[in-house]
Write a structure and sequence with these properties.
The protein has 363 residues and is α/β, with parallel strands linked by helices. Helix content is 40%, strand content 16%. It has a 7-stranded mixed sheet with strand order 8-7-6-9-12-15-16, sandwiched between helices. Strands 13-10-11-14 form a 4-stranded mixed sheet, covered by helices on one side. The protein is globular, with a radius of gyration of 21 Å.
């Protein structure tokens, strides 16, 4: 059996079945593989907010199904007994859902796309064999399917920047658990592995929620990729001593000038890479680019609860009285980024021009 077959995941991060949204409960990994079932928009909002599901593309696909669930639960029946979408009620539910996490743009992107589809469906004068709700469900299915296909494209495009025998450092989790498919940055890494590039991976633990230790390390083991888990603070030594050939990580929102917002600790890595001449790449779908903002300074940074730092895993590690600063993300300036890998190709500096060109090409 070849590597390609060995690396196929036997789990689905996101699946809609039996009229419910079923998610891998990422809070439970790597100790156990458990699932969280969403039957209401409140369930979906909780799953996103409490990080049952996380990763920008996965949040987007989850939100899409959340909008569909909201539409089903607020639908009204017409004179023929057909369930119709209640746009007014749906908009209220969407505003609630959109507040779950403020930074990742895919959440807002997916909700807006689903709302636009709902409006088009509701206003259509054409008769179809499908009920309106079925058409909205199809839009959510399309968003998930597009993400899976996008992952495949990014993985192949990203091979260009991975040399043979490369030692790669990655931060947070950007694999199947963060998307509907293979992943973004970790998807590139997986593709390099199955392509026979003989790579080795260092995975940052990614404090305080340990997404690298709990999730990326688990995915690397599942895929059989040679790797070591490291504490965040050891990355500087590896980079300084020439033991890292390139850094690849994801993004939660990218501004029109190429500034990248990603998991806290990303900016620190970019500074180290710039100082020591190590290529630094972000991998993200085009849907993660926020064309409406000019720079990363406009991105709202989510600040999470103190208990993630003081009581990791529910175990007290700091005095309860101490104040905590716990931003979930930071912004890396475009000057520190070698390239941005998307399904449409690799964006290069100057980013303002390359991103504007990309926007024109996809319009």
């Amino acid at each position: 059996m070849n590597k390609k077959n060995l690396i196929q995941e036997n789990y689905k991060t996101i699946e809609f079945k039996d009229n419910n949204l079923v998610l891998i409960d990422q809070r439970k990994l790597p100790v156990s593989l458990e699932y969280f079932t969403c039957s209401s928009v409140e369930d979906v909002e909780f799953a996103i907010r409490d990080m049952v599901v996380r990763g920008a593309p996965a949040i987007g696909a989850t939100a899409a199904y959340g909008v569909y669930i909201a539409a089903v639960n607020t639908a009204v029946k017409d004179s023929e007994g057909i369930s119709r979408i209640s746009l007014k009620s749906l908009e209220v539910q969407c505003r609630f859902l959109e507040k779950a996490r403020p930074t990742a743009v895919n959440l807002r992107w997916a909700i807006r796309r689903m709302l636009a589809a709902a409006e088009t469906i509701s206003n259509s004068t054409h008769q179809t064999d499908n009920y309106p709700l079925s058409l909205l469900k199809a839009e959510a299915d399309t968003i998930l399917a597009e993400d899976i296909e996008t992952n495949k494209k990014m993985a192949k495009i990203g091979l260009e920047i991975v040399p043979d025998n490369a030692v790669i450092l990655t931060h947070c989790n950007t694999g199947s658990l963060a998307t509907g498919g293979w992943g973004t940055a970790l998807g590139v890494i997986k593709e390099a592995h199955v392509s026979g590039k003989n790579i080795f991976v260092y995975a940052d633990e990614t404090r305080p929620r340990q997404q690298g230790a709990r999730l990326t390390a688990w995915e690397l083991v599942q895929a059989g990729i040679p790797a070591k888990l490291i504490v965040d603070s050891s990355a500087a030594v590896l980079i300084r001593d020439g033991k890292v050939d390139l850094v690849i990580l994801g993004a939660d929102r990218i501004a029109a000038n190429g500034d990248v917002c990603n998991k806290i600790g990303t900016f620190m890595l970019s500074v180290l890479c710039k100082e020591y001449g190590v290529p630094f790449y972000s991998a993200a779908p085009v849907s993660t680019i926020d064309f409406e903002i000019e720079s990363g300074s406009e991105i709202p940074i989510e600040e999470r609860g103190a208990e993630e730092v003081t009581h990791p895993g529910g175990v007290q590690r700091a005095p309860e009285e101490i104040e905590v600063f716990n931003p979930a993300f930071d912004v890396t300036p475009h000057q520190n980024i070698t390239g941005i890998i998307t399904e449409e190709g690799i964006l290069r500096p100057p980013y303002k021009q390359s991103i504007a060109k990309l926007r024109n090409n996809i319009s």
